[in-house]
Amino acid sequence: MSEINASPAFPQLNAPAPDFAARTTHGVRKLADYKGKWLVLFSHPADFTPVCTTEFTAFARHQPEFQKLNCELLGLSIDSYYSHVAWVRNIKEKFGVEINFPIIEDLSMNVARAYGMIHPGAADTSAVRATFIIDPDGILRAMVYYPMTNGRSIPEFLRLVAALQTSDKNKVATPEGWQPGDKVIVPPPQDVDAADKRMNEGYECTDWYFCKKSL
Predict the structure, then answer these.
(1) Which contacts of 147-151 are long-range, i.e. CB under 8 A and separated by 24 or more positions?
(2) How far is the C-alpha of 170 from the C-alpha of 6, rounded, in Å?
(3) Mean pLDDT, rounded, for 47-63
(4) Across the chain, which distance is largest between two alpha carbons, in Å?
(5) 52 carries an active-site annotation
(6) Helix or strand or coil: residue 16?
(7) Is the model's pLDDT at 193 over the cut of 60?
(8) Domain containing 183 — which CATH number?
(9) Which of 60, 99, 103, 211 could hold 186 in an S-S bridge, CB 3.0 to 4.6 Å?
(10) CB 70 within 8 A of CB 37
(11) Which strands sit side by side in the sheet containing 204-207, from one edge to the other?
(12) 98: domain CATH number?
C-alpha cells in the first residue's frame, strides 16, 4: 500500500519533498509524521541482498547518533511488507542487529518514482541506492545516488545532517570533510565595500573571499 500526491517528475533541492503515505514495517507512515524532525529517507534495490544488508546493519548501528541530531531513518524498497519483515528477522538472527526503523513497502513504485529512485539504465524494477535528507519543514536539502554495486558510507550522512544543521543555525558554510568542532566558512562579502573590510573583521582569512572562523 502506498499513495503519493502530485509532485514534480524529479525531486528538487530546497523545494518541498514529495509527499507520501505508505505501508511500512511499523504501520502507515506519512511525510507529515516527521514534521519537526530531520529525516533520512533511503532506498535499496532489494531485500535479502548482501550489499543492502551491510547498509541496513550500518544504519541500524548508527541510529542512536541520528536520533541525537533529531533525525529519523526511513528505508524503502520495491518489495512487499512480508519480505521486509522476513529480512529484518533474518538480519537479527544471522547478524545480531535489530532494525528499529520503518521500511516502506513500495510494490506500486509510487514513492520510488516520485523521488526519482527508478533509473532505467540501472534497473526498471528496482530502486537504486538513493538517499534524501529532508529538514523539519519538509524541505528536501540533499540527495545522493549510488550504483547498485557499491554500498554507501553511513557516517557521511551523519556528517551531512550535522553540517546542514550547523549551516542553518549559524548562517555559515562548511568545507570539504568538515566535522563538528572544525572551523566553518564565513559567507563571502557581497559588495566591494564589504570585501575591503573583510580582512580586518577578525576572521582567519586566506583572502577576502576565503575566511574561516570557530564556532
Answers:
(1) 147/122, 148/45, 148/51, 148/122, 148/123, 149/51, 150/51, 151/51, 151/54, 151/55
(2) 34
(3) 95
(4) 65
(5) yes
(6) strand
(7) yes
(8) 3.30.1020.10
(9) 211
(10) yes
(11) 184-185, 210-213, 204-207
(12) 3.40.30.10
Cα–Cα nearest to 128, from 158, 103, 113, 148: 148
Q: Is residue 62 part of a domain?
A: yes
| Domain extent at residue 176 | 171-213
| Active-site entry in 52, 71, 205, 211 | 52
pLDDT tens string 29-41:
999 999 999 999 9
Grid cell at residue 61: 548501528
pLDDT tens figures, 71-99: 999 999 888 999 999 999 999 999 999 99
Same domain, 147 and 190: no
Residue 8's pLDDT band (cuts 50, 70, 90):
very low
- Cell of residue 184, nine digits: 566553518
Q: How, if at all, do strands 71-77 and 103-105 pair? A: parallel
**Alpha-carbon span 174 to 130, nearest angstrom:** 23
Residue 205 in grid coordinates? 582569512
